[in-house]
Design a protein that fits this description.
The chain has four helices and five strands, in the order ββαβαβαβα. The chain is α/β, with parallel strands linked by helices. Strand 2, helix 1 and strand 3 form a beta-alpha-beta unit.
Amino acid sequence: MYDYTEFDNAVAIKMTGSLNTTNAAQFKDWVVREFITSRKQTIIVFDMSAVENIDSYGLGIIVGIYKRLITESRYLKIVSPNKNIKRLFELTGLDRIIKVYEHLSEALSDQ
């Protein structure tokens, strides 16, 4: 469904296009099935360098994935959001809960 790269204790998922009411539930189901229940990487990174926009439903999906991971002492990190998505995270306060990084290497090295 989406390209991803696995590392020792992390997986980076390359998101593309938009995350909205049309595709967000399908994205969540895929992430849960492929990486939360079947694999046990400590860190899941959403690479948003190719994401154009996120609506409120998509944002809710991200929060739901974050909540599920945090209950298992696992982490969600965001990498390379465009300026509008970064601003959305700032306005909603999510940037204080889910760490946002400019580069994948930063997210992977910040334990």
